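cache lookup: miss for this entity combination. No prior model stored, computing from scratch. Input as submitted by user K.M.:
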Amino acid sequence: MYMSLPDKLCRAITAEEIAAYEANGAHILRGVLPMEWIEVMREAVERILTNPGSASLEYTPKGKPGRYYGDFFIWRRDPAFEAFMKQSPMPEIAAQVMDATCLNFFYDQLLVKEPNTAEPTPWHQDLSYWPVRGNQIISIWAPFDPADEESGVVVYVKGSHKLGKLYAPSTFGDKSGFADIYAKGGLEPLPDIEAHRDDYEILSWEMAPGDVLIHHPLTLHYASGNRSATGRRRGLALRYLGDDATFDSRPGTFLENKKVMDTVPPITLKDGEPFSGDLFPRVWPRE
Ligand SMILES: O=C(O)CCC(=O)C(=O)O
């Protein structure tokens, strides 16, 4: 059904863009995704918002304005999400930026902030949440609406992937059922970056649908709530694993959350094994 949609990038990724990603831990790739995919994904997001999945979370407390909706592993139940992570230009972006010969898909994460949503995405580093070791690990964040600091675009601490530190995960929303799990990791708490923003060099870009952000799993990042009264902020992060990524069986990662465990089949990978199987499918080279 989605086979007729373009699998090619709208333009080539440049060596300068890859160098900026490597130096800074995050970068924007403007105008790379065909609008056909944006339209398909807008429709798909509406399906999910009206029929939330078993791993989904409402981060906005009941009775508060707006809605901050989070969901994971959606590709397993919605064919458009599956097509987007496999057949769109997204895996090619990951392979090119990381210079990876093969990719397995880790998971997708939908993060929708409707107008007037106060809840931010707290400062965090992705790798703290993940049972993964390696360097060829990338997130690609695609907005389906224009996004800026008012509506909650993702912003980054420049070069923070090179600090060589793994900080304790931050919980998204107060009642998300993850805090006890994350405490098991025994990692050092993250400094209060938001209260001391001037001490950091922050990277931030205004975005249009068709642009994507690429970030390294150690890069510190944050997104404000959506302060716009009218503009939605629908974003989807796809996480890809390259040649050197292996399973890390350390305790305290998000896969231990009951909602997530109930949504995916049991994970049978052993420490040090590469990711594989139906849950973490090979997506590059393309079939
Ligand atoms: O969309 C957001 O608000 C945050 C995204 C994020 O933290 C991520 O993609 O890792």
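stored under new cache key. The pocket of 2-oxoglutaric acid is lined by residues 111, 121, 126, 139, 141, 152, 154, 221, 223, 235, 237 (CB under 6 Å).
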